[in-house]
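[step 3/7] fold_predict: job queued, chain A
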Amino acid sequence: MPTGSNWRLAALAALPLAGCMLFEDQAPELVEEQRYDLAEFAEQVDDKLRMFDGCRDALASVMRENWERYADQVEIGGKPTRKREGVSIRGITENTFRGCRRSLVNASRILPAMAKIEQVTSNLVGAAEQYASQSRAVERYLDQRQRDGLGDDDWAGLAEIDPLIRAAHQRWLDADLALTNAIDTRHLENDPVLLGVLTDSRSSLELDTRKLMVRARPMVRCMTATPTPEPRDCQVAFDEFAAAATTFAATWAGDRVAADKVFWMRTFATDAEEFRSLASEFHGKLEQSRVREGDVERLLAGHAGLARDFDTLDFDFP
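[step 4/7] structure written:
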């Protein structure tokens, strides 16, 4: 039998296929020890994935906001969309992604090892930094243009930068998709294991909270995909999230005395209800083909905020 983390990986791979056979025909004390080790390992995987997810979401928020401004004000080729208004854009500062770089350093020191995801995350940060450099080049050009008093028809400098910033943005999009896929793939492997091994050892409230977060992720990824998906493509993910949200709300309301002992749970529950409403509204717009960029931003921001709430929860408090 494999030893150390290797047997845990083997168990992780086998669980979805073997189901309840995982611990069959073993001594009860060995079963309990392995179940505890597997639960610990699955939680460590989940914690580390959420670290990468937080980094990715932080980058996406900054990048989307800056790119939305640029794409709105500048046509392909480097001319202003609205000549009379001109162009007014601030570059992304060099220190913006320092937090993600720190997360990468910390991640390399935390078990279990996830070398591939760490590399993909590093690629994403690098792509974001390249885009940020081009955004600062745009800002410097605009400042210099104003000092030189160039006329409304002279945008030669911006025409030189435009293909560079657009290419940098595409590289970031590609890297963002690669990281999203890598994280989601690992979650698909780990989430059933995590929920399975925690079922007998955690409260209904904690399990239903985790299920809510597990179901939220694929729904958000599906509904905010580019190009905008067909409603039927995300229906299953949305229905599973809605069911998990309903179950969580019922569990939370069913024993408020116990729920209020969980640190940050009241805030999480409030934000979870707001996020459910936001997701339902977005789903409705998806069905009516009325989704706009601002709707996507709000859904992503709501999910990121709920994830931060989840990270703050302490079911063992005080």
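[step 5/7] annotate
The two ends are 40 Å apart (CA to CA).
The CA atoms of residues 96 and 246 lie 37 Å apart.
exit 0
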